[in-house]
Amino acid sequence: MRKSRDKLVGFLFVLPSIILIGVFVYWFIFQNVSTSFDRVVTRATKRELHPGGVANYSQLLGSDDYQHALFNLLVLTVVFVAGTMFFGLLWAILLEKGVTAEGVFRSIYLLPMAISFIAAGVVWRWLLAPGKGDQASGLNQLLAMMGLERFQSSWWQSPNSFSMAAMAIPAIWQLSGYVMALFLAGFRGISDDQREAARIDGASEWKIYRHVLFPQLSPIALSALIIVGHMSMKMFDLIYAIAGQNSYKASVPSTMMWTQLFQQGDATAAAVNATILLVLVALIVIPYLYYTNKTEKEVRG
Amino acid sequence: MTATTTEPVPVAEAVPTRKSTGRAPGTEGTVMGRTIRYASLLGFLILILIPLYVLVVTSFKTSGEVNARQAWSLPSVWSVGGWKAAWATLAPPLWRSVVLAVSVAALSAMLGSLNGFVFAKWQFKGATLVFTLFLFGMFIPYQAILIPLQGLLIQVQQTPGMSWFDGIWKLIVVHLIYGIPICALIFRNYYATAVPNEILEAAKVDGAGTARTFWSIALPISVPAFVVTMIWQFTSAWNDFLFALFLTNRNNGPVTYALNELAGGQNPDYPSIMAGVLLASLPTLLVYIILGKYFVGGLMSGSVK
Predict the structure, then answer these.
(1) Interchain contact, B136 vs A285, CB within 8 Å
(2) How close is the nearest chain B Cα to the Cα of A141, in Å?
(3) Are A122 and B142 in contact (CB < 8 Å)?
(4) Chain A interface test: which of B113, B139, B177, B250 (most A C-beta within 10 Å)
(5) 3-state percent breakdown (helix, strand, coil) of chain B, nearest 5
(6) CA B142, B148, B152: angle at the middle one, nearest 5?
(7) Is A102 in contact with B18 (Cβ distance < 8 A)?
(8) How far is CA B216 from the centre of its chain?
(9) Do A185 and B260 touch (CB under 8 A)?
């Protein structure tokens, strides 16, 4: 009796949250998906804007604008993920052995995370100004002052199709410290005895990293990959602040969705776009949640 | 039973400093290796601080002095004109952001402690599934719920007597709801280790029910988790732009909305824009500087581990 009453009270504690998440996450996702299947006909001319059903998806997936946005997202994600993983791991390795004033370095490496994407974006819009030579400002001007004119770039406004790589620079600036913190916690979780043992066996520093430390960090590397990767897919504020609203050059699905909804007043196309984005994110997040669930169970026995 | 002597694991110990190896820090490796290590650490430090240098320097310049030639030099005359102009524009939205972030932080933490306690200690049938569904809600791109969300909130606002439900009020509700998963996660992880099962068993034997156990045993030792959760929610509500852009306007939006408007004008006045960025970032920066380890604690729990 007692036990079941306790369980009931516990359940009542979480019931409001279950209802809220049920409605605001899952019911809304369902509504969004159902909007994405709407058939839309213009009132005046009876022209069919969206055929309805699955055809709405092939319509968006087939459009040049969307493919351009998807390609941009791919470039952004690859550079952003590679950059944060590289700097995050490098900084963690530089710091993990314990250096004087470690706290100062750590705090400043993490500092950009405390600033909003929109505030960072405002600064980086100026830093990544495209002018070169006499027109140079921002980073290009700094490069000129250092005698490095040949590295001047139009950044994300470069005419080539890989220009979104430049948009990853501010993102890497903001999030490398986070990856560093993850790796650093990982290094600190490995006992010194293992290193000592390897050292006594005559292993070089590189071999200790390669064969003793890195293998134990792979779960953390996976977490970092998933978190940074899914952030990249959702990235909106930074791109909106740097490129301005409705930039075609810097368009990714998440910013395109804003354009579809507010500039074009096309809720159906926006819903299709948002659903595809959700599926993309789910494809990497669901296996990850499944995996963490499983390992947690194994650890708990 | 040694349960009562079990030390609660502080959530804040996210990045432990290196355990003593008997050597002074920074003396490991060769002189050459150490030099390279410190040189690279310093180099990266400078790279990271470049945008902050630009911000501070430009914010104290006069509008006349902001041109490409002098952009990277210190102001010849330190002027607070930019700060005054930024404050004049941003003061009302800054105030709205304070109301938003403080209410969200307080409400989210209360809700989070309830959820976390149940998920950690009073597992009901299907709790694991429910919790996993919560966690998925943390990762979704909010684009996927924005259209129905906007529709519902407008409907609520248009019901008679609800016209006040706009701007910051909408954002408070939204951040409270979409913050449920992460707050539940932080508290669950905290209670899992901080409240030993043996104490709960003992409380049960003494006849205390769930509510009582939560109130008199769990809650009094929850301060670290409250700090982490409140910092996390304060920062995310303060820094949010997506919801602000979709749900508010220039007259009732938070500071991120106003900052974007300030920066997006046709003739940008860089001193006031850069001062505006600093003003809008100051609260979260202060929180980070003063309560840094708790801030990192929140970041770590975001990785589900």
Answers:
(1) yes
(2) 7
(3) no
(4) B139
(5) 70, 0, 30
(6) 120
(7) yes
(8) 28
(9) no
Q: What pLDDT is recorded for position B237?
A: 96
Determine what percent of chain A falls in helix, strand and coil, rounding each to the nearest 5: 75, 0, 20
Q: Residue B23 above 70 pLDDT?
A: no
Is B144 a residue whose pLDDT tops 80?
A: yes
Q: What is the C-alpha separation between A65 and A253, in angstroms, rounded?
A: 10
Residue B12: the pLDDT is 45
Cβ pair B303, B14 in contact under 8 A: no
Residue of B nearest to A185 (CA): B15
- Using a CB-CB cut-off of 8 Å, the residues of chain A touching B209 are 5-6, 9
Q: Residue A208 contacts by C-beta under 8 Å, 6 or more apart in sequence?
A: A195, A198, A199
Cβ-nearest to A32 among B147, B281, B305: B147
B94-105: average pLDDT: 97
Residue B48, min C-alpha distance to chain A (Å): 7
User: Are B145 and A32 an interchain contact pair (Cβ–Cβ within 8 Å)?
Assistant: yes
User: What's the gap in Å between the CA of B267 and the closest CA on chain A?
Assistant: 13
Instruction: Say if residues A98 and A190 touch (Cβ distance below 8 Å).
Output: no
> Which residues from chain B sit within 8 angstroms of residue A105, using beta carbons?
41, 45
Report yes or no: B262 and B276 within 8 Å, Cβ to Cβ. yes
pLDDT in tens, B161-217: 999 999 999 999 999 999 999 999 999 999 988 888 888 888 888 888 888 888 888
pLDDT in tens, A70-85: 999 999 999 999 999 9
Q: What is the CATH number of domain B81-301?
A: 1.10.3720.10
* Chain B residues touching residue A100 (CB < 8 angstroms): 25-26
Q: Do A122 and B277 touch (CB under 8 A)?
A: yes
Evaluate if residue B29 carries a pLDDT over 70: no
User: Could you report the per-residue pLDDT of A20-44, keeping only the tens digit for each?
Assistant: 999 999 999 999 999 999 999 988 8
pLDDT tens-digit series, residues A223-277: 899 999 999 999 999 999 999 888 999 999 999 999 999 999 999 999 999 999 9
Residues forming a β-bridge with A48: A41
Q: Using CA atoms, how far apart are residues B214 and B117, in angstroms rounded to an integer? A: 7
Per-residue pLDDT tens over the stretch A172-186: 999 999 999 999 989
Nearest to B285 by CA among B234, B230, B227: B234
Q: Chain A residue with minimal CA distance to B147?
A: A32
Measured CA to CA, the distance from residue B204 to residue B96 in angstroms comes to 45
Sequence ranges of the domains in chain B: 81-301
CATH fold of A64-300: MetI-like fold (1.10.3720)
Contacts of A275 in chain B (CB under 8 A): 144
Percent of chain B with pLDDT over 90: 61
Please say whether the dihedral angle defined by the alpha carbons of residues A250, A255, A256 and A261, taken in this order, is positive or negative.
negative
DSSP A2-30: HHHHHHHHHHHHHHHHHHHHIIIIIIHHH
- The two three-digit tokens of residue B148, written as one number: 């129905």
Confidence of residue B16 (pLDDT cuts 50, 70, 90): low
Identify the three-state secondary structure at position A41.
Answer: strand
Which value does ipTM take for this structure? 0.91
